[in-house]
Hints:
Elements: H1 3-6, H2 13-33, H3 37-48, H4 55-72, H5 78-99, H6 104-125, H7 132-149, H8 153-159, H9 165-189, H10 195-203, H11 205-225, H12 227-248
Amino acid sequence: MSASxxxxxxxxxxxxxxxxxxxxxxxxxxxxxxxxLALFGAPLLYWLNQDLVPGPMLVVGMSxxxxxxxxxxxxxxxxxxxxTIPGQLSGAVLAGLVLAVVDESLLSLLFGVLVLLAxxxxxxxxxxxxxxxxxxxxxxxSGFMATAxxxxxxxxxxxxxxxxxxxxxxxxxxxxxxxxxxxxxxxxVIGRFGLEEMLIGLSLLPPILIGFWISIYTATxxxxxxxxxxxxxxxxxxxxxxxxxxxxx
Length: 249
């Protein structure tokens, strides 16, 4: 096999253009409220070309949070992140082990039900108080979901739903950067992430940069009055998407 054929990517130009459009819209959503890129992008990219999920999706899913951290690092909940990251990493490792023996659709169904339950409880009882234990638990579930389904934002977003927009975005993004690295490492160990997936992910970075620039302006709109409603609404959609992925995927 020649070097050129070895680097040929399993994605057509038309698929790449559609993927870029999907990621652009997803980036604007996440850049505005703190999460949503994987929720919006992962199911559509999987339908478009299964080679785009989860590895390439996690590559772009690590790049956008890094940009958000650079933009809003002053608002970060440093102490909370210290509790959340260990959970995120342990969840990624656990997912790598479980994925080797448990069907992915079953996990998606379970996580979807849990996320919907959390949304309903939050809507009825109000935003939960942020505690180290809750952040550790939310981080673990987030890391597990991100590795198994590429959708890891809802548990953390629900935990942080009562804080300001900048604090939510910066804190979640810091965790996502580390968590995505852990998820990619777990996938690499079980043979589901390599050079090909890395190159596909890197090729999809241009829409991330454009969407991030747009989100600088849209984030201020959500920060005024709609942030918590947007967090719960997008989380509910994530739960339904995970259930759909488990039933029909």
